[in-house]
Design a protein that fits this description.
By secondary structure, this protein is of the alpha+beta class. Helices cover 38% and strands 27% of the residues. It has three helices and four strands. The protein has a four-stranded mixed beta sheet. Strand 1, helix 1 (13-29) and strand 2 form a beta-alpha-beta unit. It is globular, with a radius of gyration of 12 Å. The termini are close together.
Length: 79
């Protein structure tokens, strides 16, 4: 099972959108994924992220800032 964490400070629109995009992909592919939203700024900083949103997959930071493309998200699930 993959563990995906969305590092999201506050109520940002990009944070919500990333969560929705990943959640949609997980449902579409019927993947065994634990999806979490982390909004505690101290936990976000522990990942070295200063500009959320960010995405962490299985403990590895894979994306920071802005919105990933659908192509980027697709690649995260190819492995």
């Amino acid at each position: 099972m993959k563990v995906i964490k969305i590092l999201a400070a506050g109520d940002c629109s990009n944070c919500k959108k990333i969560y929705e995009m990943i959640e949609s992909k997980v449902k579409e592919k019927q993947l065994d994924v634990k999806l979490e939203k982390i909004s505690d700024i101290n936990k976000i900083i522990e990942y070295g992220v200063m500009t959320p949103p960010a995405v962490v997959i299985d403990g590895k930071l894979v994306f920071v800032g802005g919105l990933p493309t659908q192509k980027q998200i697709d690649k995260w699930f190819e492995r």
